[in-house]
Amino acid sequence: MPDFDVVVIGAGAAGLSVAAISAGLGLNVALVERHRMGGDCLNYGCVPSKALLAAAHAAAEARTAGRFGLRLPPPEVDWAGVRAHVRGAIDRIAPNDSVARFRGMGVEVVEAPAHFLSPDAIEAGGRRFGFRRCVVAAGSAAVVPELPGLDAVPWLTNETIFDLDEPPAHLLILGGGPIGLEMAQAHARLGCAVTVLEGAGRIAGREDAELVEGLRPFLRADGVAIREGVRVARVEAPEDGGPGVVAVLEGGGRVAGSHLLLAVGRAPRLSGLDLPTGNVAAGPKGIATRRDLRSTSNRRVWAVGDIADPEGLGPRAFTHVASQHAGIVVRSMLFRLPVRLDYDALPRVTYTDPELAQIGLTEAEAREAGHEGVTVLRWPLSENDRAIAEGRPEGMVKLVVGKRGRLLGAGILAPRAGEMAGLYGLMIGRKLPLSALAGMVLPYPTLSEAGKRAAGDYYTPRLLSPTTKRLIGWLKRLP
Ligand SMILES: Cc1cc2nc3c(=O)[nH]c(=O)nc-3n(C[C@H](O)[C@H](O)[C@H](O)COP(=O)(O)OP(=O)(O)OC[C@H]3O[C@@H](n4cnc5c(N)ncnc54)[C@H](O)[C@@H]3O)c2cc1C
Ligand SMILES: NC(=O)c1ccc[n+]([C@@H]2O[C@H](COP(=O)([O-])OP(=O)(O)OC[C@H]3O[C@@H](n4cnc5c(N)ncnc54)[C@H](O)[C@@H]3O)[C@@H](O)[C@H]2O)c1
Question: Domain named Pyridine nucleotide-disulphide oxidoreductase dimerisation: which ranges (predicted)?
Fold first, then answer.
């Protein structure tokens, strides 16, 4: 008999959710974590980055208060105080993910690295754990690119950037994806010089080009130097022998900084798991799974979170996806229901100011996917009363609509855009018609009215059509 009904490897967002639900259903669960409970999101990802951004946005608010007629002195950044705020946020959330809490749920928590011993057992802390089912939730880590000179200079990743004793004088950031952009604005608003070196033609390459156009000036206004389409040929120490890093660009050009942050993507944490011994197939993007997140090669194994590479979809590195995966696995693994993961209504948010939120397909993705009759509707915040009242009339809501008014995607560039994402996720996920949004009564004045106004535009031409006018003319003659 196996020792455990479920063994979970990794206590990040994905593994914790699976362990908690499985234990709640009365199963015998072991949870193995080699480092910190809570994984990346709590310790090196979402929580510290959003805490740092909150401090940065507060500093920016103080600096720009003059537009409201308020005279404030320029804010002084107390780096130790900022770090204490970041640490405090982690510490406040940590008990939810703690060993004590999970032991209290009846989970056997093992603090050691795990690896497969066979297709139905792992080893951790010198002990063998035979399992009926195993869920691999070992996450992903920052990609360290093969860049000449990198072994000879100091560099940072998301695991070290939140631990600096002093603010970086000039932070060079390799990569202008969500990590690069959030860290760029956070540090710039906290008084650091920042340069983003993006290898592709533009920053935030996955996001809607028009919305990124709207975001770029904000980052530049914060003092972020953005270099797009640049290839870093090598990195080296400064010629004067002082501290810092110099990025040498292809075709010449040198960009010097005090610190270098690598933010060029994520790689699944496969090494050390001995996946071949467990007969668990994996590729460079992660553990190969079917759409129910079950391993394609070992029926006892599932993969969740950043490490999962579901067929036809690929990995997605978001904490809300880790939770979505946990829900899928519980239904497929424990209730044996036929479930199928999809990302049709998936939201993602880059937490800059303004935030850039995308739910479902961008315009480019909808056209690329071959959707017929794609209509794009926009409502600028310059036409939104709340945005004007608050002195933030830049940004827009952009809706991507398919046949018969079906919402395929929504992009939002606005302060706190992420708070609006749920509405569009619900609409797309439940296949609600656009008329549901257009007919909704929303409180005035709110930013979310922009989406309703955009949706209304879809129906305006129909309302003003000759047929409608004829109908009204006929109706008015009725007694
Ligand atoms: C800077 C940054 C900001 C982010 N911000 C956001 C955000 O705002 N919103 C959002 O949705 N997502 C965000 N993300 C992404 C989010 O953090 C990840 O998608 C999420 O943490 C993935 O959870 P996971 O459980 O799959 O993996 P992880 O959180 O990485 O957890 C995996 C755990 O497995 C452990 N482990 C690995 N190998 C073994 C082994 N062999 N034995 C035992 N244990 C092992 C690791 O130590 C780790 O604790 C951010 C990421 C970063 C880096
Ligand atoms: N707010 C959020 O939800 C949030 C925040 C941070 C991270 N995340 C998750 O973590 C993932 C990883 O984030 P990321 O920003 O590291 O990766 P990313 O893959 O999203 O972006 C990496 C960027 O680096 C560029 N790049 C790649 N190689 C380069 C090179 N050699 N030189 C210069 N530029 C190069 C790419 O063109 C791309 O723009 C995200 O995709 C997301 O899933 C989410």
Answer: 347-454
| Residue (of 5, 15, 11) closest to 293 by Cα position | 15
CATH hierarchy code of domain 347-463: 3.30.390.30
Q: Tell me the whole-structure pTM to 2 decimals.
A: 0.97
Please report, in tens digits, the pLDDT of each residue of the chain (479 residues total): 789 999 999 999 999 999 999 999 999 999 999 999 999 999 999 999 999 999 999 999 999 999 999 999 999 999 999 999 999 999 999 999 999 999 999 999 999 999 999 999 999 999 999 999 999 999 999 999 999 999 999 999 999 999 999 999 999 999 999 999 999 999 999 999 999 999 999 999 999 999 999 999 999 999 999 999 999 999 999 998 889 999 999 988 999 999 999 999 999 999 999 999 999 999 999 999 999 999 999 999 999 999 999 999 999 999 999 999 999 999 999 999 999 999 999 999 999 999 999 999 999 999 999 998 899 999 999 999 999 999 999 999 999 999 989 999 999 999 999 999 999 999 999 999 999 999 999 999 999 999 999 999 999 877 778 888 888 888 888 88
Q: Where are the domains of the chain?
A: 4-37+98-142+267-334, 150-264, 347-463
Cβ neighbourhood burial of 116 (10 Å; 0-12, 13-18, 19+): buried
β strands within 258-402, DSSP E: 259-262, 266-268, 282-283, 286-289, 301-303, 308-310, 347-350, 355-360, 375-380, 396-401
CATH of 4-37+98-142+267-334, one of 3.50.50.60, 1.20.58.2050, 3.10.180.10, 3.40.640.10: 3.50.50.60
**Which DSSP state fits 257?**
E
Give the atom of ligand 2 at the shortest distance from the alpha carbon of 232.
Answer: 32
Residue nearest to atom 35 of ligand 1 (CA): 10
Measured from the CA of 39, which atom of ligand 1 is nearest? 49
Whether the CB of 272 sits within 6 Å of ligand 1: yes
CB distance 421 to ligand 1 below 6 Å: no
